Amino acid sequence: MARILLQNADIITLDGENEVLRGASLAIEGRTIAHIGEVPEAWHPDETLDLTGHVVMPGFWNAHTHSPMTFTRSIGDDLPLDRWFNEKIWVAESGLTEEDVYWGAMLAAAEMIRGGVVGFADHYFHMHRVAEVVEKSGLKALLATCVFGTGHEVSISFEDSVEWAHHFQGAAGGRIRTILGPHSLYICPPEFLTEVALTARSEGLGVHFHLAESEEQVAVSMEKYGKTPVEHARDLGLFDVPAIAAHSIAVSDSDMQILAEKGVVPVQCPRCHMKLAMGVTPVIPMLERNIPVALGTDGPGSSNNLHMLEEAQLAPRMQKLHRSDATALAGDLPLRLAATNGARGMGFADSGTLRPGAAADLIVMDFRRPHLQPRLSIVGNVLNSAHSGDIVHTMVDGRWLMRDGKLLTLDEEEILAQAEQRALAMLSRGTSLLREYSG
Asked: Could you tell me which of 282, 331, 335 has the C-alpha nearest to residue 308?
């Protein structure tokens, strides 16, 4: 069991309120944190790292993404949501193969490790290939196979997705957890969603789906069912199991009461919401109701990158502007949404904070840079001055995934070469299939 000592660092623990330890030490024993602040003299490390001028903090948890969509990065820019889907994304994804999923997720893993992400909640197709990526990369993940229930499944049937979930539950030494992944209430038929809810409950699984992304979806739901999407999901039983509800933008006060009562984890994706003009998740009133809001990037097809630090920075700015309130999401609260709430919402409750006994899932930022000086407020500099390139080390379960800016578990050169050619081929296939279908 390896022992690693990090010395002379400024540590954002996210354990106590706005707590930052200056010039402190953190001791790691195996997969967990053994000591923080002061380390007993009798504790002897196998490796010591002097982090003078650096900041140690919990790694980020991306609570909603579609990682293989790195292959659709930037193809649908400057389009509204419906045209982005119909004219660009569905066309490209019609040429999707298992190998595309694997290499797209590999590209995402490299990007996330570089950006300080230690775990992610993925919702896509051919998810056994994403599980391979998680295994190789050293990351943690909550994986869901996206299903529609319309007879047009992309990779496997719903029944097979349940079997898949059980097969991969606890894989990669416990770094993989699984959940069911119906796409949304506006695509999946109600009878299918009822089946999903009943199955999730009987099989001990949760659900991860898109919810209330726009006022238009609310209007359609009211017209068809006489209920808001949140009320509809509740009545279908989708909230009777642990639920991650991506976006949760168009929700009312009564909707939020339901989310609070059911312990649902809404996920705000600030960059995606801004880019596609989707609206603003009501994070402040949600938090006032003790709803455990988390942050995500959504897929890189819509957000264009997987930088969770940027999401943590945009989240408070979005709320400040929307509410005309400069005090919104003050202090280290955005980091708690991006780390602590995400980890807990994804079922990794031993992560997201730095404390004795917690998983050693952490990142190190190099503050010896002009834009991060002076260090008058460590948290303030992280949330208002830093960028992902300042992250130099990433660790998961006490294992370095990136050290001094070098990826240790992935062949970055091969990933970049494979991704470029395969993404172009996928888009070409998808365009050809569309022409064939239309012609």
From this structure: 335
